[in-house]
């Protein structure tokens, strides 16, 4: 029998850590090479483990054949919240060349719904990950639909250093198929002194931004991915304004 943080009673497939990119002292992007074929849909998650401890992580990669490595963006659990079952500090410290377990089946239903003409993606920090997968796949031609409007991506963080995919998403904007709106919630703090972009919590800038971009409730689906408080606040605001939402909560 499998316990979420317990010992695994049978041999698990392995994956090699082939690359790591340290974003901050609490954020890292990792790339895994599975030792068995691994398929998934954009927006799904994989389950990674070390010595019987396992956690689900949303996948940033576009699915095969576009990308062969499994990429994910993780945040380390704060020191005061750590227990012996905290996996993220162990993953952060694990060097390139080491292996982890990778459950053979991707899971999750946080998938792009193509029947909405206007697609809006809202997230905080590492929760941008499933959207990166969807956007890469979209630009590769994975989906049947080519939207007449760009996909709007709203991304909130405390500090500008936490935007792990900033350059990639800004490059996507050049295709005309994506509009990326990063926003920081602590603009007066020293690490953000050079920031010249949007400010404010991401859930607080949505309605004003929707008006600016002419994003109407009748043709839009707003995806929400992030911590519970952000999702609750954004959903309440958007529902009252008539927008339909779809959510994925990160704890």
Helix content: 10-25%
Question: What's the alpha carbon Rg, rounded to whole Å?
Answer: 18 Å
Low-confidence stretches: 1-9
Number of domains: 2
- Average pLDDT confidence is 93
SSE string? EEEEEHEEHEHEEHEHE
What is the CATH third-level topology name of the largest domain?
A: Rossmann fold
CATH homolog superfamily of the largest domain: Nucleotide-binding domain of ferredoxin-NADP reductase (FNR) module
| Strand content range | 25-35%
Care to give the gist of this entry?
This protein is of the alpha/beta class and 251 residues long. The chain has five helices and twelve strands.
Description:
- This protein has helices at 88-93, 129-140, 166-173, 206-213, 228-240, and strands at residues 14-22, 27-34, 45-50, 53-58, 70-75, 99-102, 118-124, 151-157, 178-184, 198-199, 220-226, 244-249.
- Mean pLDDT is 93; it is low at 1-9.
- The longest helix has 13 residues, at 228-240.
- The strands form 2 sheets. The protein has a 6-stranded antiparallel beta sheet.
- The chain is α/β, with parallel strands linked by helices and 251 residues long.
- It folds into 2 domains: 14-102, Elongation Factor Tu (Ef-tu), domain 3 (Beta Barrel); 118-249, Nucleotide-binding domain of ferredoxin-NADP reductase (FNR) module (Rossmann fold), CATH 3.40.50.
